[in-house]
Specification:
Helix content: 40-55%
Membrane topology: Multi-pass membrane protein
Strand content: 15-25%
Order of helices and strands: HHHEHEEEHHEEHHHEEEHHHEHEEHEEH
Number of helices: 15
Protein name: histidine kinase
CATH architecture of the largest domain: 2-Layer Sandwich
Subcellular location: Cell membrane
Distance between the termini: 121 Å
Radius of gyration: 54 Å
Main location: membrane
Structural class: alpha+beta
Number of domains: 3
CATH class of the largest domain: Alpha Beta
Strand order of the largest sheet: 6-5-9-8-7
Enzyme class: transferase
Oligomer: single chain
Shape: rod-shaped
Number of strands: 14
Mean pLDDT: 77
Largest sheet: 5 strands, antiparallel
CATH topology of the largest domain: Heat Shock Protein 90
């Protein structure tokens, strides 16, 4: 006979479904509790019934012993089956339904007994304790079987002990009461088990709905997969409960928001502070792909409510993409400027060629000097007043772009900025954003002009950009620094409404400020104050390499012009 294939063998064990497992465990627990409770109740019940029976026997014995006829009969009459003691004892036994009521003298001779033939004989158990004046409760075996008995001394009218009274209640009747109580106890236990099973079924159904009838192993696997996914993805994930408290943060969210485990269990206002990021994550600002700035990072946030009243928010880092977008804008501007310069250069070369063909050599020399001098004056004006090479290069490039767009970019006579900046790249970002916004504001207007003023007051740098555009209404002067707010149409590769927000964040990070007001003569005037923006000056100032190079070039040009 071939063995049973392994796939067909009967496998015993817990069911796989969580509903069945929970129901089975809860029913088993309810049954165990019912059995344990029943056993714990039955164990002391027998002792309680025995105690009640012995006390009842003792009480009957005490009542019999105080009957004056009993003591008088023991002292003055012989022990006979029809004597007064026997008759009174039998009356008491029948009235109390006791098993026996035995009256004895001090020698242990019976004066009464349910069996008349036993009257006049000595008792079968030792009455010494009762005759000594003690009251006795016990369960013992006598001529009538096992009984719960009580023994008390019998005293005459003078208080002397003349005998004892022993009363017994059949022990079998106690067991009968116990056995009679078992069905009722089992009924209670069965009812409790039924209620427990019903409650277990209802709880299991609720657990089934909440866990989607998954097995415990499936839930454990899902939890492990969730942890791996949350900490492995390159997007920040923030989970909130229905009260708006943070209940989960993955590694990327901690990095992007700059918070740690101390934020768990706290509200967003407590964990992040006030700001647009908090409003977006809390749902006070609605929409998809909402832009926000956290520190120096540009984030894109989305928020999805959950069934339990909470929410899950995702964060994507767009800082690098935003920087690439700005670089692309700058590159496009430079390309346009170079294209315009190429066109202008071609026109000038044609003019120069014509002058040479006409043998107008003096006019050709003068024409070349004017063209070279114009560009040299612009560069020298910037480099003389702004000694930081990054800022100087930025403004020279912006001047070329502004000229192509028909805008005059001027450097204020008050501009003086030494080459001692603590964070030149940050100031380049601030000035670049402000100049770009100013060029956008004045483009297409008559007599368009943008003026840049960079000066120092002690160790504080003051950056001012003015334009001749339409200006900014007073009610919008704070709104324009909000992330994502812009009056201009966004290009295809990135969002608008980030530049001015970054400007304010950079200023506030250094303890400074960024404000906007009305420029003299109309237009907007942006002012950025950066405390402690300069390093300590050197003991003996010396020309930097770029400055020395520019000075030498200027001297060479002057000599050539002479």
């Amino acid at each position: 006979m071939s063995p049973t294939p392994p796939a067909r063998r009967l496998r015993l064990g817990l069911p796989r479904r969580m509903f069945s497992q929970v129901l089975l465990m809860q029913v088993a627990i309810a049954a165990g509790v019912a059995v344990l409770a029943t056993g714990l109740f039955l164990a002391p019940l027998g002792n309680q019934l025995d105690d009640q029976a012995m006390r009842r026997a003792l009480s009957i014995a005490q009542t019999t012993a105080v009957d004056p006829q009993i003591a008088h009969g023991v002292v003055n009459t012989p022990p006979t089956a029809d004597g007064p003691v026997q008759q009174e004892a039998e009356r008491i036994r029948e009235a109390t339904r006791a098993e026996y009521v035995v009256v004895m003298d001090w020698r242990g001779v019976r004066w009464s007994h349910p069996t008349p033939d036993e009257v006049g004989r000595t008792v079968s158990t030792d009455p010494g304790d009762a005759l000594a004046g003690d009251e006795v409760m016990e369960i013992d075996a006598g001529t009538l079987g096992r009984t719960a008995r009580g023994k008390v001394p019998l005293r005459d009218s003078d208080g002397d002990i003349v005998g004892a009274v022993s009363v017994g209640i059949a022990y079998d009747s106690v067991r009968a009461r116990l056995i009679h109580a078992i069905p009722e106890l089992l009924a209670y236990a069965g009812g409790a088990l039924a209620v427990g099973a019903l409650a277990a079924w209802l709880i299991s159904r609720r657990v089934q709905r909440q866990t989607r009838d998954l097995a415990f192993s499936d839930i454990s696997a899902l939890l492990a997969e969730r942890e791996a996914m949350l900490h492995g993805i390159r997007e920040g994930v923030v989970a909130l409960d229905r009260e708006g408290r943070v209940r989960l943060l993955n590694d990327e969210a901690r990095r992007l928001l700059g918070i740690g485990d101390e934020a768990l269990g706290r509200s967003l206002d407590e964990a992040l502070g006030e700001g647009r990021t908090t409003d977006v994550l809390a749902g006070r600002v609605t929409g998809t792909d909402l832009l926000t700035v956290r520190g120096q990072r540009v984030l894109v946030a989305n928020r999805m409510p959950t069934d339990d009243g909470g929410a899950v928010a995702t964060l994507r880092d767009r800082t690098e993409l935003e920087q690439l977008g700005r670089e692309l804008d700058s590159t496009r501007g430079l390309i346009d400027a170079l294209r315009a310069q190429d066109h202008e250069h071609a026109n000038r070369m044609h003019t120069l060629l014509g002058l040479l063909e006409l043998e107008m050599y003096d006019d050709a020399v003068e024409f070349v000097g004017e063209v070279v001098g114009e560009h040299r004056a612009t560069a020298e004006q910037v480099t003389e007043r702004i000694q930081d090479p990054l800022l100087a290069a930025l403004l020279v490039g912006k001047a070329t772009v502004a000229a192509e767009r028909g805008v005059a970019l001027l450097v204020s006579d008050r501009t003086r900025l030494p080459d001692r900046l603590v964070d030149p790249r940050g100031i380049v970002t601030v000035v670049g954003n402000l100049v770009d916004n100013a060029l956008d504001a004045v483009a297409g207007t008559a007599h368009a002009r943008v003026e840049v003023e960079l000066r120092t007051e002690g160790d504080t740098a003051v950056l001012v950009v003015r334009d001749t555009g339409p200006g900014i209404p007073a009610e919008r002067r704070e709104l324009i620094f909000t992330e994502g707010w812009s009056t201009k149409e966004a290009p295809a590769h990135r969002e608008r409404g980030i530049g001015l927000s970054l400007v304010r964040r950079l200023a506030e990070r250094q303890g400074g400020s960024a404000t906007v007001g009305e420029a003299p003569g109309g237009g907007a005037e942006f002012t950025v104050v950066l405390p402690d923006a300069l390093t300590e000056p050197a003991a003996e100032p010396a020309l930097t390499a770029p400055t020395a190079h520019r000075t030498a070039a200027r001297r060479t040009a002057e000599e050539e012009s002479r």
